[in-house]
Amino acid sequence: MKSAWDDLDHLKQHLERALDDLYQCYRPAFLRWLQAEYPNLDHHDRLDIFQDTVIVVWNNVRSERLSELRSTLWTYVCGIGKLLAMSKRRKQGRVSYVEDMTEYLKGMDSFSELEFMTRDELDLIWKYIDQLDEPYCSVLTLTFKYDLSSAEIAELMNAASAAVVRVQRNRGMNQLRQLVKTQQI
After folding, report:
1. Largest pairwise CA distance in the chain
2. I want to staple 53 with a disulfide (CB 3.0 to 4.6 A). Which of 81, 108, 117, 137 is the partner?
C-alpha cells in the first residue's frame, strides 16, 4: 500500500489528516490482514489492536521517536500491529510463546544456520530466552523474532538510544550463553 504518508516529513506536517486516512483507508485492510494472520482473535480484539496500533504510530510520530521510515507506513503499521496481536494472544493464553517464536525463526532465511537444530533444541533456547531478565528477554525477542534494528527496538521500548539497546542485546546474549552452557544442550 504505497501512499503519500510514506514520506515521514509529509506525515509529520499533516499528522491529523494522516490519522484520518489511517482510519478510513488502512482500517479495513488492517482488519482483513489481522484476521488472516490471527484467525483466533475475535472482531473486538482486532478492533482494539488497530486502535492501539494507531495510538502507537501517532505517539511515535508526534514525539519524534520515529526518526526514519524505512518502509511504507502500511508495513510500519502492520509491524506494530503484529507485535500487539502476539502480545494479546500470549496474554489470553492462546499461543505458546516458545512455539510461536520457534516457528517464526524457522521460517526466516536469516536464521538458516538454525536449521541443523532439532525442534526440541530450539524450544529449549526460546525457553531460556524467556527466562532472561527484562529488558534482555524483550530485546532478544524483538531482535531475533522480528528482525528489528536497534533503533526500532529503542522506539518500541522507549529506550534512551539504539546504543542502549545494543548494550542490552550483548548482555542478554551473554546471559543466554551462560544459561545454555550450564545446561549443556
Report:
1. 56
2. 81
Question: CA-to-CA distance for 83 and 85, rounded, in angstroms?
Answer: 6
CA distances for 90 relative to 2, 15, 174, angstroms: 31, 32, 26
Q: What is the mean pLDDT of the chain?
A: 77
Q: Which grid cell is 151?
A: 533503533
- Least Cα distance to 144 among 172, 116, 163 occurs for 172
Q: Locate the domains of the chain by residue range.
A: 1-95, 97-185
Structural domain 97-185, CATH architecture: Orthogonal Bundle (1.10)
Q: Strands (DSSP E) along 87-155, which ranges?
A: none
* pLDDT 10s digits, 125-163: 778 888 899 999 999 888 877 777 888 889 888 888 989
State the Cα–Cα distance between residues 131 and 151, nearest whole angstrom: 24
**Pick the residue with more confidence: 168 or 117?**
168
pTM: 0.51
pLDDT of residue 94: 53
> Of 139, 148, 159, 143, which Cα lies nearest the Cα of 65?
159
